[in-house]
């Protein structure tokens, strides 16, 4: 090596050269996994909207259950489209090592708040109806509800409850590790 050449140490590698990307970068997720998650989200959104729309007047036990299905379906569709557009943006060379833009963060935050509000509302609607005991054979009765609409909302709420529990355990584990583990 000549006198004028400089050797770069491994600690002086730039952020781009190290292959790291900013936190929250969607490009870290393998493409097939991301496409599968977005596809599932879009499919569930459509199913929720269709089932809710077909049963708006067939759930007397709690009229909000089909409306909740429609609202969750719309949120899933909007979130899926938003994440797909973010995924396309993150795969462009000009945006490869950039995180989400400010507007994307705002949209994600609003969608997250709406999802949490609907999560709480779904628990209220579904478990309140469950306590009364839905009659699936006679949806026109006072405690009647279409079995497909109710069971879809019931399974969705249970799945979200489990997911919420796993997220809370993960946050607690991270917090404990961060606070008590030596670095």
TrEMBL record:
Q: Any transmembrane segments, and where?
A: 33-53, 65-85, 105-130, 150-177
Q: By its UniProt entry, which InterPro entries does this protein fall under? A: TMEM272
> In what ranges is there compositional bias, type Basic residues?
1-10
Q: Note the superkingdom of the native organism.
A: Eukaryota
Cite the residue spans of the region called Disordered. 1-24
Q: Which UniProt keywords apply?
A: Membrane, Transmembrane, Transmembrane helix
Instruction: Write out the biased-composition intervals (Low complexity).
Output: 11-24
From the Swiss-Prot or TrEMBL record, give the protein name: Uncharacterized protein LOC108671660
Species the sequence originates in:
Hyalella azteca (Amphipod)
């Amino acid at each position: 090596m000549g006198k004028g050449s400089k050797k770069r140490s491994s600690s002086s590698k730039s952020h781009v050269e190290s292959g790291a990307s900013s936190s929250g970068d969607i490009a870290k997720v393998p493409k097939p996994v991301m496409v599968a998650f977005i596809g599932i989200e879009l499919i569930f959104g459509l199913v929720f909207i269709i089932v809710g729309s077909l049963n708006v007047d067939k759930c007397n036990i709690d009229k909000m259950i089909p409306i909740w299905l429609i609202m969750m379906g719309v949120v899933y569709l909007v979130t899926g489209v938003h994440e797909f557009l973010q995924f396309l943006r993150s795969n462009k060379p000009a945006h490869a090592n950039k995180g989400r833009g400010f507007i994307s963060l705002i949209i994600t935050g609003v969608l997250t708040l709406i999802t949490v509000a609907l999560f709480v509302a779904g628990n209220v609607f579904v478990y309140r109806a469950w306590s009364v005991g839905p009659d699936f054979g006679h949806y026109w009765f006072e405690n009647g509800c279409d079995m497909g609409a109710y069971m879809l909302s019931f399974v969705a709420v249970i799945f979200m409850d489990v997911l919420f529990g796993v997220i809370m355990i993960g946050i607690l584990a991270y917090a404990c590790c961060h606070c008590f583990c030596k670095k």
